Amino acid sequence: MDEDEPEVLFVACHHCREIVTPEIGLDIIGRLTTGYGSDPAITALVDQYEIWVAPVCNPDGLEYVWNVNNLWRKNRKDFGNGEFGVDLNRNYDLNWQSLCGASNNPTSNVYRGPSPQSEAEVQTIVGLSQARNFAKVMDFHSYGQEVLQGYNCAAMPSLIDTWIDNEAAALANPISFNTRDPSADGEHYQWQIKASTAYAFLAETHTSFQPTHPSALTEAAAVWPMNLAFLQRPLPLVGHVTDASTGAPVAAGVSIVGLTWSNGETRRSEPQYGRYHLNLPAGTHQVQFDAPGYAPQTVTVTTTGNGTTVQDVMLMQGGPFALAAFTSGGGVGDFTMDLYNLPPGTGVGFTLFSLQTAQPVGTGGLFGLAPDLLTIESLVSPPGPTNPLHWSQPFVPGVFPLGPLTLPPGTVQIPAGTRVDGVAIAATPAYLQLLAQSSVVRLTF
Ligand SMILES: [Zn+2]
């Protein structure tokens, strides 16, 4: 059933000669369907997750393995010049261009294909994944009894890299597999990390490409404790993003403040329910939510390492520069912004302007969370590094009484000599109307 649940994908047989792997996919289907309603652990997992299993990702290749060449690895793409096949597990758009552990020679067993995600099989997995926003992905290969973790050549934030390695060990331990870094980039499970911060790994199973069928069934049963652990490991952070006024789900970008990814990684809430997930080590993190037409919001969350933190977020409508230009007469340094008659729950963002440079010199957000309090949730510097007025000091979160609001001194550091001429306010529509009708904002420098 398609329900508001985190979604999980098991994939097998990207490489068609690895014929133990479809048996593992079928084993998972069998255990989940026959165990539901009788095995409490399986029942809980099926109730908790929406689970997808793709036992054969490379059907044309598998047919060729059974009938023509039992060591064929790639798909059967016909290039029309006597050359066939792309290595599907080098065709994904994660550092594809680097040729890390891949080849650009069509005769190679690790040929990456003519362009990222050129192959129908890969496009199928990508399309399914973009529609489902998988929280967990396990990709089965053979052989070698190992769990593969993270990227190879591509860079990953060390905080996440370390956490992924620890999780790989937690999956490998129940079945005494080893863990290791992968031998290439452009692999399926790596793309899942890039596309949706999925909890994604690759398991090399068995000790040969083509064991007997009884041996393959034995291996499928032997790896079940890993698959069970994979399903049972808690998602560190989940929640929903909704519209504060209507309650409707919002498809928002989700990012972790201070964590730099370098391969175009994205995280988002999906549009059907507004559901999102983030894989983070234990600790306190600042998570930012952005969506067109809404004021961005940053929340502080604590993840525990052994459970799931639930953090729902309501975004308030209102875009940047919805109401602009309160001339201050110019000034440098700290400033005071007075906001009056702020309705409870109002979200306000602001941008400081310099007419001298026609550039914003700082932006921020204030979010009312209680009838008589304001909590400063975020202050985000303008995009750098080319902006000469870029400032990087994080805003200090705090709680301030309603009425004249004085921002903490020193938190907005405007370069000496920069003239600040105004402020643009973004807020919920009702409060913008209030602002437009009366002098409820005063700036002093
Ligand atoms: Zn493989």
Walk me through this protein's architecture.
Helices cover 22% and strands 25% of the residues. By secondary structure, the chain is an alpha/beta fold. It folds into 3 domains: 226 residues, Zn peptidases (Aminopeptidase); 79 residues, Carboxypeptidase-like, regulatory domain (Immunoglobulin-like), CATH 2.60.40; 109 residues, no CATH class. Strand 10 and strand 11 form a beta hairpin. Bound molecules: zinc ion. The site of zinc ion has 4 residues, from loops.
Distinct bound molecules: zinc ion
Question: What structural class do you assign from the helix and strand content?
Answer: alpha/beta
CATH fold field value of the largest domain: Aminopeptidase
The biggest beta sheet, please? Answer: 6 strands, mixed
Q: Distance between termini?
A: 58 Å
Bulk shape: globular
Count of folded domains: 3
Overall radius of gyration: 26 Å
- What is the topology, as strand order, of the major beta sheet? 2-1-3-6-4-5
Low-confidence stretches: 319-346, 353-428, 434-445
Helix content: 10-25%
**What order do the SSEs take from the amino end to the carboxyl end, as H and E?**
EHHEHHEEHEHEHEEEEEEEEEEEEEEHE
Blueprint of the fold:
Blueprint: E1 7-12, H1 20-35, H2 40-48, E2 50-54, H3 59-67, H4 120-132, E3 136-142, E4 146-148, H5 158-172, E5 178-180, H6 188-196, E6 199-205, H7 213-232, E7 237-243, E8 253-256, E9 275-278, E10 283-290, E11 297-303, E12 309-310, E13 313-315, E14 336-339, E15 347-354, E16 359-370, E17 373-378, E18 399-401, E19 403-406, E20 422-427, H8 429-437, E21 441-444
Parallel strand pairs: 1-2, 1-3, 3-6, 4-5, 7-12, 7-13
Antiparallel strand pairs: 4-6, 7-9, 8-10, 10-11, 14-19, 14-21, 15-16, 15-20, 16-17, 17-18
The site of zinc ion (ZN) has 4 residues, from loops.
